[in-house]
Amino acid sequence: MKRKLFSFQRFLAIIKKEFIQIKRDPISLRIPIVMPIVMMLLFGYAVTTEVDKISTAIFDQSKTQESREYIDRFVASNYFVVKYNVSSERELSDLIDGGKVKAGLIIPSDYANDIRKNRTPQTQLIIDGTDPTTARTALNSGLLVNEVYSRTFKEEAMKKIGSSALKTPGVSMSSKVWYNPNLESTRFTIPGLVGLILQNITIMLTGFALVRERERGTIEQLIVTPIRSIELILGKLIPYIIIGYAGFLFSLALCVFWFKVEVTGSLTLFLLLGFLFVICALSIGMLISTLAKNQLQAMMVTILVLLPSILLSGFVFPREAMPTAIYLIGYAIPLTYFLDITRGIMLKGIGPEFLWNDIIALSIFMVFLLGLATLRFRKSLD
């Protein structure tokens, strides 16, 4: 009896069997729905280089009606948001070093007096140049606001006193860009790459650690041994910590010796905090490994983790340009804090007194992720 070349019944049976397999694999079933939603939201809202509402500190030494009018023009432009009013240049410098503001406007004490005496007052705009995109916007917008204000002021003065435009004072504004005077993109991107490469390597290394054990059948051998969950998790992490930290050192060496972006601050502090981030990123990978049942699932979950971290951490696109909801999500990503640390130490040369918020956040993430991965694995033992 000849067998049919193609059996529609067998064909339907295979289709039925595959649907059953897909039904039993909820993670793979959800990925085609979750991935488009995540991608569209991220690229639709997070990917933007149009920066406005730049956090600004004001050092108004004049404290007069004239100086307040000048400040109001900056606020009205919608490019600058006054977050702090400071009483010294030192306080302004600390706010920029700590990343709390991206720009500072200094108005001299004789501002109003110069205007009244028909002299040209000199204001100053200080800009944090570590992020060239934000810095360029702040610089161009600040100069434009000052130019428009000066022109308007001259026109109004001419109408009142009838003097010529040449004799009517305007406002002259000087600008100073800190940490990256030439606004070189490489000085912003390359230090960030150190953190990004470190994260990607470590997460991918450990993301498949327990999954491989399951697929090879060796996980059952570990289950019957008296080894505890925390012992297994930490035992698997140690080799990857060494490998991941070696990758961090290699990336840093390329940054310094090949791209000539030196570590301005404490190298010892940076190496210590790099070690902290290695453990934190490895913990993310270990957690993924406890969630996934096979390497395909581990790969898909890893992509879901890595993509938001690239877009929302401030690696490429300024976080200040993102909608508030997307901006807040960035705080749930460990890379966000390590990028602040990397650029703070490498470009600004700041110390732990300006970075303690980021250090504490990374430490909390490390403990939480390690604990959650251990609990997840204990559940799998049951």
Characterization of the model:
With 382 residues, the chain is α/β, with parallel strands linked by helices. The protein folds into 2 domains: 54-178, abc type-2 transporter like fold (3-Layer(aba) Sandwich); 184-381, no CATH class. Helices cover 65% and strands 8% of the residues. It contains 15 helices and 5 strands. Strands 2-1-3-4-5 form a 5-stranded mixed beta sheet, sandwiched between helices. Helix 2 (26-46) packs parallel to helix 12 (295-312) and helix 11 packs parallel to helix 15. The radius of gyration is 28 Å and the shape is elongated. The two termini are 51 Å apart. The mean pLDDT is 83.
Describe the SSE topology.
Blueprint: H1 8-23, H2 26-46, E1 54-60, H3 65-76, E2 80-85, H4 89-97, E3 103-107, H5 111-116, E4 122-128, H6 132-161, E5 172-178, H7 185-207, H8 209-216, H9 219-223, H10 229-258, H11 267-291, H12 295-312, H13 324-329, H14 334-348, H15 356-381
Parallel strand pairs: 1-2, 1-3, 4-5
Antiparallel strand pairs: 3-4
Helix pairs in contact: 2-12, 7-10, 7-11, 7-12, 7-14, 10-11, 11-14, 11-15, 14-15
